[in-house]
Amino acid sequence: MASIRTPRNLCGQVVHDLGSRILAGEVKPGEPLPQETTLCEEMGVSRTVVREAIKSLAAKGLVESRAKRGTIVRPARVWNYLDPEVLEWQSQSDVNGQLLRYLTEFRQAIEPTAAALAAERASDDERALIQEAWEEMARGAGSVEAFHLADTRFHTEILHATGNPFFAPVANVISVSLEASLEVTNRQPVENLASVPVHQKVLDAILARKPKEASEAMRSHLKDAADRIERVLGSG
Hints:
Arc Repressor Mutant, subunit A, 10 helices, 2 strands, Four Helix Bundle (Hemerythrin (Met), subunit A), mainly alpha
């Protein structure tokens, strides 16, 4: 028996389609989306589904409704770039690696401080979770997928261990950035193996409760990653 698609599933599909178009530049800031009736016909959905999708896009900062003009794409500077779906749509349209550069730059501004705070504030349980994630990295170095999952967890656990809830949303940026970065720099297991001791320096400093050393180790790690990314992108 075929599964029945719920309105939420349909709405999600419309949100994804329209959001992808906007981030790909098919509909530019200041331009209107197709009229409601056109979207209904094109996507085979009801007005209710289209309206809910527009509300979702508006909540992400991508569009706004204007009298006599319809639904207009907002300037890129007000888009919610930390939204998981917006990040996904951005990554799909990142043809020249510029998004990866931006994400890496953002991480360099955030993660050294997060590592220092984790070294200072993390509980014993949080330190154990960071170490567990590092051990998963070491075991999974032979697999790009397993290594990516463990690497993401390692950096995410550090964010949570800061004790500051405003670091948590950055985990989405870390995940997208790491996935894109590893596709560029860690295509072979040997490259994963080389990353393990680099992450261990961050881990050791956090476990030793040395904020300055943790920050410097993270800064060095991210600088090395940025340099490797630039070498690959620059030679492409």
